[in-house]
Amino acid sequence: MGFLAVLHAALESFPAWPAGACGWITAALLWDRISRTHRLLVGIITAIGGGALAMAWWRSGALPLAQAISQNHTLLTMLVAVTFLRLISLPSERSATPLPTGPKALWRTVLGVHLFGAVINISTVIIMADRIAQARPLDRTTALLFSRAFSACAFWSPFIGGTALVLAYVDGAELATLMLVGMPLAACSLALTYWWSRGDADTFHGYPIRFASLWIPALLAIGVLIVHKRLPDVSILIVIAVIATLLTVVVLFLKQGITRAGHAVRHHTEHQLPQLAQELSLFLAAGVLATGIAELIATSGDPFPFSTLNGTTASLTLGAMIMLAVAGIHPIIMVSVISIMVVPISPDPNLAAMMFMMCWAIGVPASPLSGTNLILQGRYNVSSWKLSRWNLKYCLAMYVIATLTLHLYDAL
After folding, report:
1. Nearest-CA neighbor of 372 among 43, 151, 165, 158?
2. What pLDDT score does 398 carry?
3. Most buried in the list 73, 192, 300, 343, measured by CB within 10 Å?
C-alpha cells in the first residue's frame, strides 16, 4: 500500500485505487486482531458511508468506488512509515532502570510523552505505560497524563493521524502556520496537565526519559519542512512517509550495518505493522464515509449552517464537535464529515484546519471511544468512560483557550 501510494504521488498517470485496495486487503487479513467494540465502530461508519454513496448514486447515477476505497491511502502510508521511527528514536526501555519519582519525574514524563508521541505516535503511550505498569498499576493521575499529553500532539504535529487527516482534507492549509499556532496551545495543554497533577507529584512514578534521543525526531521535522517548502505540490503526507522511511534505513545502516538493519526492518514489518490494524480499519472506513457524504452534499446542496467561517462560527462549530465527542462520536467522523460540509463556503484553509486540529486534540481525551482512551482501558484496565468524565474540566479549559486563539487568528 505504501509503495503504491508513493508511486501514485510520483506518477500522475498511476491511479490511487491499487494502494487503497491493498489497504482493504490488509484490513481484511488483520480483522481478527481488532476488538469487538472497534469492529462495531468500523462497521457503523462503513455502513453510513455506503448508505450515503448509494443514495447519491440513486440521485446522480455516479458511484465513485475508486475514490471511496482510496480516500485515505496517503494518510495511512504516512502512519505506516512513521512507525519505523520506533527502530531508531525510542526512549530507553531498560526494565532494570528504577522508575523516577517526584515533581521532576512528573514534568519530564509529561514532556516526554508529548515530544516522543508527536513523532512516534501512539507507540510512545504503549511503551511508556507498559514500563510503568510493570512496577505498579496505572492510577488516575498517570492515565490522565498519557491521555492529555499525547492528544495535545494533534495541536501541531503533522505526524499524528488526526493532523494528517486534516492536512489531507483541507486543501491550501500551510503547515508552518498551523505549527506556529498549535505549539502554544500544546504548551498550555502540558502546563494544565502538570498543574492539575501536581497534588500527586510527590508519589508519582514516571518514565526514565532520555531526551538525547530527540535529535532524530527534530531532524525529521526539519527535513519535512525543507522538502515541503521546495516541493509544495507534493502531498505533505507522502513527504513525511518517504523521509521517515529513508531516515530510519540510513540511521540503522550506520549504527548496525546492513545485515542487522535488514533484520530489524523485517522484524518490524512482520510483527509491529500488524498492530496498526485498528487505525487502518478506522481510517479506511472514514474514507468511505467522507466520500459518501461528499457525494450526497453534491447532490443535495450545502448543509453547513453558516455562510462563512470566522472566529465566532469556528468556535461554535468546535464546541459542537467537542460535545459530540463527549457523547461518544469519534473525532475522525466529525473531521471527515464536517470538513466536506465546510468546503462549499470556501473558508480560510488555515482557520478551518486549526478548528479541526483543535477538535482532534480536545475531542480525543473527551471521547470514551477514542483510540487513546480505549488503549488505556484495554491494556491497563482504566475505564475509558471514566477517563472521558475526568477529562471534562481539562477539555473545557482547552476549549476556552482554543476559542480565544481562533478569534485572535481571525482578527489578525
Report:
1. 151
2. 97
3. 73
